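Something for you to look into today, if you have time. Could you write out one complete protein record for me, on any chain you like? The space below this message is yours for that.
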Amino acid sequence: MRKLKLLLVGLLLCVPGLATADASDIPGTTNWYLHVDFKQMQTVGAGTAIFDWLEQEVFAEVREEAGVDFGKEIDQLTAFSPVGGGPVFVLDGKISQESKDKVMIFIAAEGDLQPLKSSGTSYYRLALNDSDDDENTRAGDGSLEFDFESLEHESWISLDLKNRIIITGSEEQMKAMLKNGGKIAGSGSHKGALVVLTAEKTLFQAGMNSAAFSEEGGSDWNSNIFRNTEQVALMVAAVANKLAIEAKLITTEPEMAESLASVARGLISLVSFDDDMDQEAVAVLQGTKVEAKGNSLSISVAIDPALLVSTLSD
């Protein structure tokens, strides 16, 4: 849960729509993706607690430091990184001219004010650090060695599309996005495309090609689970007055899915008998469903929004 919190907060702070994403919204060669629907959080009962938490933990700080009110202006955030290309960030919402002006101040300070044109739409180049010797400024290539600081080396941003800001890690990506009217050209049928979990009222989705993660450097992802997992997908959706959380792992072998399912059920059973654990949390664990089918492992649970927010805040 802590890693989920860090992932969400980190992504939101790194880059200051789409309806619910589905397989057709995510390019087939994507190594990771993220989709957050802030508008849905504000309008669906079970999502308001998460939005209030974001308002306190994230949006307030962004508003204070950058003067941009994410809570009011950004409806949805979609991000992904295809193999062989840098990251792409798409922010949808009724973004005010005042906020765009503040972004232009940033471009003036750290980029090139001379606009570029593609498909009749303007965009700008950002080059925050032109030193090729800085190990943190290597361009993202879509692999899982990519870090978000690579955007600081060179990136492109467009503010001209109605209710949409696009930030890309390469100029080619920007041109492709603008040629398509700012929409993501999905490829859900692409062989090996990442799993995308969907629901009617999805608040948060994420997925990654875990097989591509580097095992060097003592990464926290370097574990037996991830070494034997090809893909991971996560979804948080609103169902009645609960939050439905679903995770799916695609393993290298069917036997591994069965083994991981046994481990998950065993851990849930052990933790459920911990006398120090809150009874509400115990009830959630006992209601967790673990299912292995072929080389797919699914874990799903329904949780009270207040309990999730409490866990995120700890």
Summary: The first helix runs from residue 2 to 14. The chain is about 35% helix and 25% strand.
